Amino acid sequence: MNLLTKTPLAGLALGALYLALSPRVAVPVYKPVLFRPDRYPNGEYHLESLSGIKREDVFFPSTNGKTLHGWFFETPGADKTILFSHGNGGNLATRTGLVGALLETGASVFIYDYQGYGRSEGSPNVKRICQDGLSAYRFLTKEVGIDFRDIINYGESLGSGVASYLAMNVPTAALVLQSGFCSLARIGKEHVPLLHVYPDWLFPQPELNNLATVRGKHQPLLIIHGMNDETVPFAHGQELFAEASEPKRFAVLPNAGHINMYDVDRQLYINAVKEFLNSLRAAAITV
User: Fewer beta carbons under 10 A from the terminal one: N or C of the chain?
Assistant: First the structure.
């Protein structure tokens, strides 16, 4: 076999290896980086209430037949319910600080676990967590009976991508992106420089492109980002806000990191969400 024959074969082999190691194909390679679930009983499952609001355990089906678990904190007299899609680590029982702070805004909160997290059955991937978000939305609207105009679609970190997916597929009162990235592909490349060799279309689908979502027509938008965020740098929040179409707001938390705003910038965080909810009520009155 001469060199001319070997070269095309070598090229084909390299091309096949390139595709085989891409984030979209080599799912088992990248899954431990993207998803870091804690299973039950890891977390503060012993808590019966937060901020004086009793916890209700709920179970509901995912689109692929798995049973998902959530906590519903129904605040008496609340006119808004926050649908909380959390980040890639832990589970709902490791988000008690954030949920407690959100309850202080006067809203109800429904936080759920993706497949493979906490007490939810199954195993996560990008498509499934997006479908799990839709399942949680349908539970709130169909089973609990909450009007979509009273649902605040809230995403934290990786959950910001889920929230953006929901924003493109179902109606809600508003969209909140906390510690959100511009896109999954971009933040992946920033954390793993070798991924720069792959175009965005070779990343998992749906693409979780928050930037594309906020550039288009969207519900009233609140972006929340800590200036000391080392996981999703503050520059992502800045770009999301700069590129987003109206209506939009930006809550900058000067001391917060990735998810600790409920602690270090607690009152600023609570006030930002409260003011956003009040702006939604004022807008509804003027319509």
Answer: C
